[in-house]
């Protein structure tokens, strides 16, 4: 009987449980310590050998993509919902607040946003789609006269970078600081607070469309 390579055989129960354990442990370690956690530490905490870990996840990027796939799916859903909101400013605020909250609750998330995933992967496609849709939301908010005209897409990266500085752990104090910082930044993005023109956008390259 021939085997269709496009439909790999399902994992045995023990292999499936190992894979789920690896993802669970990696998510916990990345959330608490960031993405610098070595693969060896993930294997050790998951109680599996390195061969088993690399059999399921040949690269660290593959593991990071699997761990944070749900967060990227959530980002896409949040942006899609924001675009359905008849008030583009309210939608813009919702996206920035939600992403800031996700970042404050998970140290690995902002690093995963900036991670280099192979272009053909699902997680890369989802991240790029979220950014493209957010860019559309930005233009709508500007057209409505609610978002300052000199807001650049790379300013979202500045928000994430600044928020990462106050969300160094997952304590309640960090989450409170994150919410206040995001509120300050959102207030500065309002068109009525534009005032003096800003310096040119930062030459950042994490967010691409």
Beta-strand share of residues: under 5%
The level-1 CATH class of the largest domain: Mainly Alpha
Instruction: Detail the poorly predicted runs.
Output: 1-9
Biggest pleated sheet: none
Question: How would the global form be characterised?
Answer: elongated
- Helix coverage percent: 55-70%
Q: How large is the count of helical segments?
A: 10
Overall mean pLDDT stands at 84
CATH topology of the largest domain: Tetracycline Repressor, domain 2
Write the element-wise H/E pattern from the N-terminal end onward.
HHHHHHHHHH
Report what the structure shows.
With 209 residues, the protein is mainly α. The protein has helices spanning 13-33, 39-46, 50-56, 60-67, 69-84, 88-105, 107-114, 122-143, 155-166, 172-189. The longest helix has 22 residues, at 122-143.
